[in-house]
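Researcher: Structure prediction, please.
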Amino acid sequence: MDKSAIDALYQKAKKEGKVVVWGPQKNTLAYVKENFGKQYPGIEVVTAASLRSGTKIIAEAKAKRYTLDTFIFPISSGMLPLYKRKLLARGPWKEFGVPKAKQFLDGHVAGLNNLAYVVVYNTNNVKPGEVPSKWEDLLHPRWKGRLLGSPFLFPHLMAYFNLTWSDERTLAYTRTMINKQKILLARGPREGFLKSGERHLVVGDFTQLAKIYKDHGVPVKYKFMDLTPSPQFTSAVMANAPHPNAARLLAGWLTTETAVKLREKKYMFDLTPSSNSSLAKEMRASGTKHILETAKNFASRKVNYKKFHPIVTGRKK
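Model: Predicted structure follows.
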């Protein structure tokens, strides 16, 4: 880490006085707004959260409106389309000591943390010993009418499975879940269905959300299954950032040990092969096969997603 270079960047950023950062959800941004100014006072942090942030950025760029400085999003669903359109700048990764293994898309984004797809279950309805270790074991008749999922996440989960499983196997799994197991793909928060006991186990939720549910008083646990798909969150500097120095300072700060510890307090952990985070160790100890999101497997997952999304929405049997 080059402290003198970072301090010089801070002095320039302080003159700009503001940095605008977007991400997919409020919980991915709250720690930034709460803590960045403590280390770098004099810079106002403005945040906005939306799962459709990437689409908005592209639309604004076409209209030549540039309001965003720093972006936080998974690498393929958010960053890759922007990278292809030359809307990202190379980050200050050298100054902040980010290793090459944590830099993606030709140095335009840096890795932050990962999500992990798991099952989450209500311990009042399901004993830990009853939870299977393989995703396909959830097709047993005992789980009929007890399963819950997300109409957004479930087809993405199937797209990850299809990287390892054949088309036939993944399609059969999807159809059986919907037609025989009667999985409830709820558009609303899954937490309420678990809390009420209306549904007992979520197929494809995240460890982070399980911990949040528990903080809210819902009696839940999570379990790593035989496959663990894992989206990769990253940070990037926008090529046309209105506050370019503040954008670089924030993007770099997000990679620091300070930010890593703040994310871990919010249950956001690095799960890459080099990580020594507590969740990474827990995941490896489970014996699961880790399927990490990369720019390289994005094309395959995009094709896969199109196979399963129509089944999930009911437009295709």
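Model: The longest strand covers residues 232-238.
Researcher: Thanks, that helps.
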